[in-house]
Specification:
By secondary structure, the chain is α+β, with helices and mostly antiparallel strands. Helix 1 packs across helix 3. It is 49% helix and 21% strand. The chain has two domains: 78 residues, no CATH class; 73 residues, Nuclear Transport Factor 2, Chain: A.
């Protein structure tokens, strides 16, 4: 899973929790709410999002994030059901895991770096590979394997 995907997931989760808390306490937020906007066509959806931003409609923005999260949750559930692991390669106390899954009917090939912590568990971590090349020994073999695996997304 890419770092950006993790960050986006966390942001969506936080916004969802905020929306639930706000709706539970019935605190009034500024704005008209999502029901006042037109999302019936792609063009109308773009216009509505721009109107929401221009007017500072916090309520509609949160409602939109919650609605997006619901459909995204369904896709993530399917992704977990189709998750398959190809291999893991260990390097300098870290491991890169190669896995694939289906989402929206498409195959996705991704990698995730993990690091074993003192508690014995593996946690996601960042491993910069931008300075690695295919000609740099073990790093080169790992770099090429990652590049080849993720290139399957374009096939």
């Amino acid at each position: 899973m890419k770092t950006g995907t993790i960050v986006l997931s966390v942001v969506s989760l936080v916004l969802s929790v905020v929306a639930i808390v706000i709706s539970g306490t019935r605190t009034s937020l500024p704005g008209k709410g999502l029901s006042e906007y037109d999302f019936s066509t792609p063009q109308a959806a773009v216009k509505s999002q721009m109107q929401m931003e221009a007017s500072g409609d916090v309520r509609a923005s949160i409602e939109l994030k919650v609605a997006e999260g619901m459909s995204e949750k369904d896709l993530k559930d399917k992704a977990v059901e189709t998750l398959q692991f190809d291999r893991a390669i260990e390097h300098e106390g870290k491991a890169v895991v190669f896995y694939k899954f289906k989402k929206g009917g498409l195959d996705y090939y991704e990698t995730m770096w993990l690091e074993k912590k003192p508690d014995g568990r593996f946690y996601p971590t960042y491993q910069p590979t931008y300075s690695w090349s295919e000609n740099s020994g073990d790093k080169g073999r790992i770099y090429k394997a990652i590049k080849d695996w993720e290139a399957k997304n374009k096939e």
